[in-house]
Each structure stands twice: as C-alpha cells, then as structure tokens.
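Retro notes
What went well: the complex prediction finally ran end to end.
Inputs used:
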Amino acid sequence: MNFDLDKFLPYRLSLATNTLSQALAKDYAAFDITRTQWRVLAVLGAGLEGEQDWTAGAIAHKTMMDKTTLSRAIKNLIERGLVKRKAAQDDGRASPLALTAKGRKLFEKIVPIALAHEERIVGNISNDDLKTLERILGALLVHD
Amino acid sequence: MNFDLDKFLPYRLSLATNTLSQALAKDYAAFDITRTQWRVLAVLGAGLEGEQDWTAGAIAHKTMMDKTTLSRAIKNLIERGLVKRKAAQDDGRASPLALTAKGRKLFEKIVPIALAHEERIVGNISNDDLKTLERILGALLVHD
DNA sequence: AAATTATAGTTGCATAAGCAACTTGTTTAT
DNA sequence: ATAAACAAGTTGCTTATGCAACTATAATTT
C-alpha cells in the first residue's frame, strides 16, 4: 500500500499550523491568555464599532470553536475585567460582548507582538505565494 | 488599531486545518482510532520495510507530538494488538515499533478512506496551486 | 393565548493533552 | 572503573476540550 504521510495534506497542514500556533501561544501566554481567550479578544478587538453584535454564539460560529469552550473563556475574561457584557437590546438570551478599556489596552499590547510574529513567518514567503496561499485557504474552507 | 483577524495567517491556517482534521477524525473514529493513534499507524504503515527504526521518540520527533501523548497512544495500540515492539538491537532503552498483521490490516482499511477524504478537498485545487501550497508549507516548517 | 419547538448560553462529565518528575539504561568525564 | 551527565520512555497531575444534558428566553403552531 503506497501511502506517503509526508505528502498527505491534512498532516502537512496540521504540522505547519501547530508549529505556528504553539509559537504564537507563547507570546500571549506571557499575559496569561490562552489560545481561546486570544481568539475572543481578537474578534472583539478587530470588530469595528457598531459593526455587529459579537455574542458568544457569533464568535463560536465565526471561529468554528465549541461554544462551551468559548463560554468558559469568556467567563474568565469577564472575571478579569477584560471583557464585558453589553445590554441585549432585543433578545434576552443573547449577550453581546465588548472589550473593556482594560481589555482593549491588553489587545493593543498583544497585536503588535502577534503581527511581528506573523511577519517573521510571512517574511520568507513571496507576495505571489502569499496570495496563492490566501486563495487556497479560502477554498479549503467551505464554511457556510 | 488596525488588526484584521480574517487576514491573520495563523488564524486562517488554524481554521482550515481544524476543519480538515475534524472531518478526517470522524473517519477513523469509526474504527475507535484517535488522531494520535492514527498518526502512529500512519508513520508505521507508511514506513517501508527496514527503512528506519520507528521508536516512540522518532515518531514524536517526526510528527512534533508530545512523547507522553504518544506513549499512551502506543500503549493502547499494543494492548489492542495493532502494534508490537520489536526487539531493540543496540539500545536497551529504545523500543522500535511495528504494525502487527492486524494493525496493517486496519491501516490498509483506513488509508483509502483518508485518501478519498483528501481527494475531496484537494480536488478543488489546481495542480499549480497544490505545488505552491506544498512549497509554502515546507517553508513554514523549519523543523530542525 | 397555550403548547410546542427552537435557540443562547451554562454546567456536568468523560476524555485528551502536555508539563514535570521519575525509572531505567547509556554515554562521557575524570 | 566510577561518578556524573544524558537519553528513552512512563506515570502523576493539572488543565483543556467537547459532547450531552440542562436552564432560560424566544419564536412558532394550532
């Protein structure tokens, strides 16, 4: 049976991703932020004002993470005063989230580090290749 | 602060990878095989005869997985008679592994499913793009 | 409008993952 | 040759993950 693990795409992708994620994780672990927590901060921080109500569910859907994992990450962020719940306007179940001032401050401290990290990686890749990569990654994700 | 999560490469990669991995995981979960166990089977199964002694450590290094995670996965595979320990020739600590007949049988049952899965994904990507992807993934992994 | 069905979020539980410390066997240094 | 340093693999422990079940609110059906 001819099966070459080294050419098996899911494996290759997984390896590359894990390497990157783990290295990046160390960056924000310095702020006691886990991967999931960083995702929440990133979604809330990247969101322009008034753009959308970022509820836990919306974040779960966007990032394709489990809602229970998110629920706990959010709980922790709220306890630490980094995220707050905005008053729900219409739906009493949903609970739109936002960064607090403290949360935004932290977000703005982490972003340059994350970007520098990305730059270190992406720096080795040509512009054309990057565009191709973007396109392929888009194609891999059917995501709704 | 301008930070666009949707264009942040580690995030994009992670999303694509998780989608693929999770879908694939369902395939071998049908055989009561976890991700880590599948990796072990794949490394052992893909290895040509006499190519290299695949010890737990060698697999850990190749796949960049934690050795304790692997230790337990291997233990389980041995208990189920899918993997066996070959006699160590020189080093009394190391314990080279191999598929049993039963293990190879299972491996050969899973491979076509995994390949079909990959094909479903890769089918949408042009050959040129695939080559580029391979190259980029290689570049992302400095690995040693 | 009462009853059913669906949705947002949380909690319980069982499993997975990974660090640190340990055991056993192997080198290296003196 | 003996002690010290090192490496392979395992075990303990803590935390992360993700499914299933639950609570509370909202929408739909009749």
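What we learned: Chain A has six helices and two strands.
What to try next: split runs per interface for comparison.
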